[in-house]
Design a protein that fits this description.
262 residues; 14% helix; 42% strand; globular; disordered N terminus
């Protein structure tokens, strides 16, 4: 049976102009902090041949008004009480801060601001959103799947995002969602699908982001492997005292703007 535009399971949506990464369920308040661990896999294929691969772990910490992501040598902290995000570089022992909500356009002027506007327009195409009606068991959790897909700014290339969420885990949602939302604001290619992923009910057990053209396919998969209530280390949601602050460098997050123009 056909449904109206507000009821359709599959729609085309035009959104303004990315690691990517994890939607949490809206539940009653929980006092304990929660640590989650994801296995992260990167795969690059040329035809059917695996060209390269890289495996790593991503750790997340979630509290009532703050959240943290740890990925190898870098961490990101969101503080709702301070309306700030902190970006930690453990190799250089430095940190940067950024007010939230993030407005990427405010960090550019002149020619670079025009370049950014052009890039945002290239990533602003419509996406198709489809929710699977059938539950799927992943690990210990019953999940439902959301698929978001659309053409990319590269001719002949297509991006597909698949999200499997569960409502069986009771976690704080708001701070982790805000961390994710503000990270996506720094990545133009993520903007158009992130809000759909955040609106999908539940906590993300698995997510894949695939980009494919006629010759190559790259895929990043994050899969939940552990959840535990745990007391965080002291000062875990603030920059370490022995790290030094450096000015926020937007070019670290929007690399295309620092590349030579053709």
């Amino acid at each position: 049976m056909k449904t109206g535009p507000n009821e359709a399971r599959k729609t085309k949506v035009g959104l303004p102009g990315l690691i990517p990464i994890f939607t949490l369920c809206l539940t009653a308040p929980v006092l304990a902090d929660t640590m989650v661990e994801y296995q992260t896999e990167f795969r690059s294929f040329e035809g059917a041949r695996l060209r390269s691969q890289l495996d790593s772990k991503t750790f997340g910490w979630i509290a009532a008004d703050r959240a943290r992501l740890d990925r190898t040598e870098k961490s990101v902290i969101f503080r709702a009480d301070e309306r700030k995000m902190y970006f930690l570089d453990h190799k250089t022992k430095t940190w940067q801060q950024l007010a939230v909500p993030v407005k990427l356009e405010d960090h550019f002027v002149g020619e670079r601001k025009a370049m950014l506007a052009e890039m945002l327009a290239e990533h602003a195409g419509p996406v198709e959103v489809e929710e699977s009606p059938e539950p799927e068991k992943i690990g210990s959790w019953v999940t439902r799947k959301l698929e978001i897909s659309g053409k990319t700014a590269t001719l002949g290339s297509r991006e597909t995002v698949e999200v499997w969420n569960t409502t069986e885990l009771k976690l704080h949602r708001s701070p982790y969602d805000e961390l994710r939302r503000n990270l996506a604001a720094l990545n133009p290619s993520a903007r158009r699908w992130t809000e759909h992923a955040l609106a999908f009910d539940g906590f993300t057990v698995k997510q894949t982001v695939s980009i494919e053209d006629v010759r190559r396919r790259t895929q990043v998969t994050n899969q939940l492997v552990a959840v535990a209530e745990r007391d965080p280390p002291e000062g875990h949601y603030s920059p370490p005292a022995d790290y030094r602050e450096v000015p926020f460098d937007v070019s670290q997050y929007v690399q295309i703007l620092t590349a030579p123009r053709p």
